[in-house]
Amino acid sequence: MWPLYAAGFTTAFGAHGIAANLGGHTEDAVTSLLVLGGLLALYDGAEVLLKPLFGTLADRVGARPVLLGGLVAFAAASALYVVADSPGWLWAARLGQGAAASAFSPAASALVARLNPGTKHGRAFGSYGFYKSIGYTLGPLLGGVLVWAGGLRLLFTVLAALGAAVAVWAVLAVPVVPPLPKARQTVLNLARRLADPVFLTPTAALAAATAALSVGVGFLPVSGRAAGLGTVATGAAVSVLAGCAAVVQPRAGRALDDGRLTARTGLAAGLSLTAAGLACAMLPGLTGILVGAGLIGAGTGLITPLGFAALAASTPAERLGQTMGAAELGRELGDAGGPLLVAAVASFATLTYGFGALAALTATMAVAMFVHRPPVSSVPQPKTER
Q1: How far is it, in rounded angstroms, from Cα 12 to Cα 319?
Q2: Which residue, 143, 126, 107, is CA-closest to 13?
């Protein structure tokens, strides 16, 4: 499992490490906000378009080859900018990284499910999410140190080495998991399966969690600066958010596996905590920001492993890659949609109302889950490979 956790760390570290530091050094060809926005959108756009495709490919040829190919491609794309060191190749490298992450991210999630019995899915996805959270936390910090020391080329060098090292580790340690035989699936069958509440409910919760996480990371520092707080205080808020998410995920997974928590109850509680955190972010001053960050982190940390475990439990083993790819697409849409909603509301009101709008939407989802009791499956998968 450790190479899969390392793959999760790699995609998170690569995404946030570069995104947080692209605008800091104009000599590295990021010369305007328009260029910066384009580079950020390039990576995310590749993930939105390609994750479902690579998830389906993982079901067809096996998740392990897609994982290895994605890691090798990530290392190659990172090395491309190191060697070329020109503005045009930065665009190509960033596109290549996004496409590669689109391959190995859903493949790793599918392998986490395939290599663990259903009774341990909560623990497995909790640990996987923990290491991704560490990547999200260290990305901006360690990435900033690397860019300060040697520019973007040094950061890309480290990412190339990281991708290659994890690929070698996966070759040596990840067992061969052959694709399972499956019945022919029409487009209508796929549409029905993805429209089923058993899929939509945890995916919507994952999208809401990612939206809140993205908003917290992006807008809590803005709110802090508007309140006259320094960079240390605003940076602490982001660290609290990421730290709470990292701490909660393994514990939530263990509670699910031990029967102390059901997926439906946990997702509803996670959405409630997240909504409460967004509401606290509306309060002025450091206290509101820190409490809001902690609650958002705890809520998203509760949702993430439970959402993926519920998806794995309700999906035939031969369709896991497709399901994980589609769920990752939902998360990417939340990642983009949350900040867009908050920014749109803030543009004609204030940032406080932007937090309030997303809090209201998230709370509505939590209430709907409590009241209507949607069918979130918690039944373990019968097939397991080791």
Answers
A1: 24
A2: 143
64 residue type, one letter:
R
> What pLDDT score was predicted for residue 220?
81
Spatial separation of the C-alpha atoms in residues 98 and 41, rounded to whole Å: 10
Q: Which among 288, 281, 284, 268 is positioned nearest to 367, based on CA atoms?
A: 268
As a whole number of angstroms, the distance between CA 384 and CA 349 comes to 52
> Among candidates 257, 199, 254, which has minimal Cα distance to 377?
199
pLDDT score recorded for residue 1: 80
* pTM score of the predicted model: 0.75
Reduce the DSSP state of residue 10 to 3 states and report it. helix
**The pLDDT value given to residue 386:** 38
Spatial distance between the Cα atoms of 138 and 212, rounded to a whole number of angstroms: 19
Query: What distance in Å separates the CA atoms of residue 295 and residue 275, rounded to the nearest whole number?
Result: 8
Contact partners, residue 259, CB within 8 Å, separation at least 6 = none
Distances (CA, A) of 200 to 92, 206, 236: 34, 10, 34
CA 350, CA 331: separation in Å to the nearest integer?
A: 26
Q: d(Cα 288, Cα 83) in Å, to the nearest integer?
A: 46
Question: Which of 131-145, 186-200, 343-357 is least confident?
Answer: 186-200
